[in-house]
Write a structure and sequence with these properties.
The structure is a single chain. Helices cover 39% and strands 15% of the residues. With 315 residues, it is α/β, with parallel strands linked by helices. It has one domain (61-284): 2-enoyl-CoA Hydratase, Chain A, domain 1 (Alpha-Beta Complex). The protein has a seven-stranded mixed β-sheet with strand order 3-4-5-6-7-8-9, with helices on both faces. A two-stranded antiparallel sheet has the order 1-2. The chain has a two-stranded antiparallel ribbon with strand order 10-11.
Length: 315
Amino acid sequence: MSLFDWFANRRKSGPISEDRQEREIADGLWTKCEHCDVLTYTKDLRANQSVCGECGHHHRIFSDERIRQLIDPGTWHPLDSQVSPKDPLNFKDRKAYADRLRDTQTKTKLSDAVQTGLGNLDGLPVALGVMDFRFMGGSMGSVVGEKLTRMIEQATATQRPVIIVCASGGARMQEGLLSLMQMAKISGALQQHQTARLLYLPVLTHPTTGGVTASFAMLGDIIIAEPKATIGFAGRRVVEQTLREKLPETFQTAEYLQEHGFVDLILSRTQLKQTLAQLIRLHPPLPPEADRLDGLTLNWPELQHHRVSSHSNGD
């Protein structure tokens, strides 16, 4: 049978029902863009790092795929993968927290909402943490805080830059105050990392909200975001009710935050690895001697205060 005859027979068999069409699209061979509705061959979409070639929409990807995109093959060494969450409050809403954890772990094959590890990015040693929105909305509980803190401390000890790919709905309410404590714990580890004059690069993806935005997501030396990612603390409706005014449609997008100075760089996913490698090469670890000049120890806070005082005095 010729190809023409095959198409003719398909046409005679009648119109394709919506259910049948959905089944054919959902078989994994083709992927429909959420933004422009264009159908793309799934292999081509993955080859383009899940970025639509028609409109540039960034499809959501998860931690395993993100690690594969950023880390050189054969160099990934997971950290603390055995650390699992507990239920210290015996929390229960419509479903017990312990049951929720067990079901989510079975579904995602993850212990919690972040994967951390060491590896090479374009030949450069890095410490990488990747949050996974599949695991209870990427919420930040005790395990997320512990794993990120341990990773940052190991990066400080081994003189590695830290990269954290953020995707979160915020703190995990089922762990109450214990969840909120992770904001301070991770921030403290990042302060020690900064004191060691090492680089920290957060990558904000869709969505990055709540306590994650209020802590480590916004503490980077250079803050990077993906195009059109939703980034914010409180929800849009809460902010509008508080301010009692209508906010622009672009509010809490990566572009809006860059315009107002909260984001330094918006990058397509296809350019992310190359740009991260360039930034790391431009900011190598500084030796202790970098704070000395002509035998004099430079106190950077005092030097900054002197500069401000001189400027105000007209010197």
